[in-house]
Amino acid sequence: MKNQTFRMTMLFDFYGELLTDRQKEFYQLYYDEDLSLSEIAENYGISRQGVRDVIVRAEAYMTEIEDKTGLVKRFMQLSGHIDAIENAVNEIKQLNYRLFEDQRLEDLCAVIERETTALKD
After folding, report:
1. Is 0.70 surpassed by the pTM of this model?
2. In terms of Cα–Cα distance, which of 74, 68, 52, 75 is closest to 18?
């Protein structure tokens, strides 16, 4: 993955609901709100180390689940394939417009676009 924050965000998107409420809250404050461990600790009246432990446990748990399921990895691979399909469809549409003006090609491109959009959702 590109960087640690992106990886952690993806893991949270996929597995965040499996965390405890406290883990979710600290995790979101740290990664989404960009609060420091000290700021979170001050807001909750606990030690910086306590906040760090909660976040590290959450990261480890989600990483373990990803290692077992591979859902994020498969999602990233699928996204690349979908992007390639979309690029190919756009090229077909451009060629069709310039050379053929074939309605059947337009219809097939529309079907492919609908299906790729459905896969993204």
Report:
1. yes
2. 68
